[in-house]
């Protein structure tokens, strides 16, 4: 088996941005070399995965063929996400001709088989994501949980959500700054616009293994640092949003031959990371969290701001929060849920 490893590495020798999520880590560790020598990085990644000692399963998703396990890499807490990758059209002929087939059952026009494809076709490449070291807070994010839909008025935003965002900041944005500063994922960049006000970097979301375009998933990370969520957007940001929308769509057309009419371009509210980023996914592919309760089409966002500059500052927003979310506790404490 040749696992493709996407690693969020922040162990010994790695510098992390410090926010509430990262307070369990020492601020004095040094930065890892992530951008230059691919071979060396790969070797390190494989080495880390082979040292992973599993302790318990956090989540199993049979439909997505995904399992998330908790454990340790030496003495550091870690989470590993394993996902079986989708079929690709180019391997089908070999799959039918070159496989060992064991009949299972036959009834009328129906029959089932166990098809033993040769190892390189048989889903043996497993998309593997390691998060290490991982905080208790982040481990919780991976455990299956019921969600609650909250109603956030502008007053709730001002007195509950904003203070929460400012105080706790949720997960570290270090990975975002690494991308913007070309300290990580440089070779994965699909398009970039360097303009400090309207510019952005477009690259594959790490949920996408880029093996096939059926589950295309890119994110555009804006260069400006002071926009956390939809709530911060006003009409003055329309040129930036239009820029991301148009140039992002053009880049996807150029790189993947997918026209704008085949794309879902949207932002999340609430996001997991408070630095504005825009999701580009293929229409027809429904990743988790693309539902109406959390996603806002960029085209709608732009039009709403054109109609009213303060649209997102005034309106009541609805979104799901996990039962164990700290923000939900604040809503409960305020008697809003
Ligand atoms: P979100 O809307 O803040 O929250 O999206 P979500 O994770 O609940 O969707 C953040 C997006 O950034 C997600 O789609 C993540 O898969 C993606 N992402 C997160 N990290 C840590 C990375 C990373 O290091 N690299 C890349 N390329 N994408 C990431």
UniProtKB/TrEMBL annotation:
Q: Where is the active site?
A: 277
Cross-referenced Gene3D superfamilies = HIT-like, mRNA decapping enzyme DcpS N-terminal domain, Scavenger mRNA decapping enzyme, N-terminal domain
What GO terms in the biological process aspect are recorded for it?
deadenylation-dependent decapping of nuclear-transcribed mRNA; mRNA processing
Where along this sequence does the record place binding of substrate?
A: 175, 185, 205, 207, 268-279
Quaternary structure note = Homodimer. Associates with components of the exosome multienzyme ribonuclease complex, such as EXOSC3 and EXOSC4. Interacts with NDOR1.
EC number(s) on record? 3.6.1.59
Q: Which family does it belong to?
A: Belongs to the HIT family.
> Where this protein primarily resides, as one coarse class?
nucleus
Q: Reaction(s) catalyzed by this protein?
A: a 5'-end (N(7)-methyl 5'-triphosphoguanosine)-ribonucleoside in mRNA + H2O = N(7)-methyl-GMP + a 5'-end diphospho-ribonucleoside in mRNA + 2 H(+)
Q: Which GO terms describe its molecular function?
A: 5'-(N(7)-methyl 5'-triphosphoguanosine)-[mRNA] diphosphatase activity; RNA 7-methylguanosine cap binding
An example Gene Ontology cellular component term from the record?
A: P-body
Enzyme class, broadest EC rank: hydrolase
Identify one Pfam family in the record. Answer: DcpS
As for subcellular location, the record says: Nucleus
> Which InterPro entries does UniProt cross-reference here?
DcpS/DCS2, HIT-like_sf, Scavenger_mRNA_decap_enz_N
Question: Can you say what this protein is called?
Answer: m7GpppX diphosphatase
* Purpose: Decapping scavenger enzyme that catalyzes the cleavage of a residual cap structure following the degradation of mRNAs by the 3'->5' exosome-mediated mRNA decay pathway.
| Protein keywords | Hydrolase, mRNA processing, Nucleus
